[in-house]
Design brief:
Pfam families: Amidohydro_1. With 449 residues, the chain is α/β, with parallel strands linked by helices. It has 13 helices and 18 strands. The radius of gyration is 22 Å and the shape is globular.
């Protein structure tokens, strides 16, 4: 653990140097913004509002009304003529990996990779994510604390981040990223490169799990990510395996609950998810192979399902990964409608990992949800509902205030869309053309008007 802590400290120093060297400064933005003549999607409704005016003061929505709103025409006031466009909450993606989504596997394996290079890639990814209209994300594992701190300080442009920190995995689990020559830290005393980079904690037994969870909480994790089953992108674990004993998993849940937050698990199969439910886990990430019995258990125990819309395997994908993905791909078409009809609490994310070229397609993963949901349900899912999942972090939530809605007193994370996504959900797939204004925390990130 000391080696890991030392690496975190070095990474923070290098990353801070990178920020200073590239001259990132906090932008000066208007303190008052008035949107005139907009149609509001409030995050939950099935129809747009009548033509309305929305006043933002500081980082909060102060007033929404169909009446004119008088404001002082001062230099720090920006008046935006909406001309009937749609004002909606910023998009939320609850399963990203801001650092490892910005790096390829070749990048990660390169001996030339440094914390500064990884930080630079993550910073670019963060800025591009925000410009796609994602004002908030939940990072589901990896080096994140330094990037989040830089964004919150205004030194880098990027979304709000709910950080998990390093994933917690058993030996030979989905988070065991060791190269073949790297041997067990427990037996041979050497911390693996992935652990040094803050990607994962390989933790076996109740004591190690408690320490790993508490380390992440110490660094500022808003929730804990635990590997409870096999994965498609990992080398050692078949997709069907169940990971962590009930006692180990309960240890993670107890440590998280003592800090007022929750554990989310990576899991696909009924056996892995049922064990997680018994342990007190609050969120299941993935779950594409679940059956009706397990989904009913999730409803009974008020457990969330955070899942994705996965695309078919590509010809250049590793054959082993193609084979591991097949049952997951087959299961997702059953999962979404079955979970919806049974009343499971649903959230949506993308989960891009080690494929940087996919990031620019983030928005295009929203419209395929139309196979199972109405446009209004999709908009609610990627705004209000995802925000409700984030709220499970309770007092460990890194930001105070309401997200995912356009309401008086809510945080001003807003998109002005050129068109009506309630009638054409594909508008969300082209943020460069259709998001004419992007606002995060009351600040104008993009303003083409």
């Amino acid at each position: 653990m000391r080696a890991v802590l030392k690496t975190y400290a070095v990474a923070l120093f290098v990353f801070s140097f990178f920020i200073s060297a590239f001259g990132y400064t906090k932008d000066t933005e208007p303190t008052v913004v008035l949107f005139e003549n907009v149609r509001v999607f409030d995050g939950t409704g099935s129809a747009l509002s009548a033509p309305s005016n929305v006043l933002v003061r500081g980082n909060v929505i102060e007033r929404i009304t169909t009446d004119p709103i008088p404001v002082d025409r001062r230099a720090d006031t920006r008046i935006i003529q909406g001309e009937g466009r749609t004002l909606m909450p910023g998009l939320i993606d609850v399963h990203v990996h801001m650092t490892f989504g910005a790096l390829s596997m070749a990048d990660l394996m390169s001996p030339d990779l440094t914390p500064a290079k990884a930080g630079a890639a993550a910073a670019r990814n963060a800025e591009e994510t925000l410009l796609r209209g994602f004002t908030t994300v939940r990072d589901a594992g990896g080096p994140i604390f330094e990037l989040k701190a830089a964004i919150d300080a205004g030194q880098i442009s990027g979304p709000r981040i709910w950080p998990s920190g390093a994933t917690v995995s058993q030996t030979a689990g989905h988070g065991d990223f060791r190269m073949p020559h790297e041997r067990s830290r427990r037996f041979f005393g050497e911390v693996s490169r992935a652990e040094q980079m803050g990607a994962t904690f390989i933790a076996d037994g109740r004591d190690d799990v408690l320490t790993a969870v508490r380390e992440n909480l110490r660094f500022g994790a808003s929730q804990i990510k635990l590997m409870a089953g096999g994965g498609t992108s990992s080398a050692y674990d078949p997709i069907d395996v169940t990971q962590y004993t009930l006692d180990e998993m309960r240890a993670a849940v107890e440590a998280a609950e003592d800090w007022g937050t929750y554990v989310t698990v990576h899991a696909y199969t009924p056996r892995a998810v049922q064990r997680a439910i018994e342990a007190g886990v609050r969120v299941i990430d993935h779950g594409q192979m679940l059956d009706e019995e397990t989904l009913k258990m999730m409803v009974e125990h008020d457990v969330w399902l955070s899942t994705q819309v996965l695309r078919s395997s590509t010809p250049d994908m590793d054959p082993q990964r193609v084979a591991k993905r097949q049952p997951v791909l087959e299961g997702q078409a059953r999962l979404w409608p079955m979970a919806r009809d049974l009343g499971v609490k649903l959230a949506w994310g993308t989960d891009f990992l080690f494929e940087p070229d996919l990031n620019k397609e983030q928005n295009s993963y929203i419209p395929p949800l139309a196979e199972w949901f109405s446009n209004a349900e999709i908009l609610k899912l990627v705004t209000h509902d995802n925000a409700q999942l984030l709220a499970l972090s309770g007092l460990r939530s890194p930001y105070s205030g309401r997200l995912g809605v356009v309401e008086n007193g809510a945080l001003a994370d807003l998109l002005l869309v050129d068109g009506n996504p309630l009638t054409d959900i594909t508008l969300l797939a082209d943020p460069e053309s259709n998001f004419v204004v992007i606002m995060k925390d009351g600040k104008l990130v993009k303003d083409t008007l």
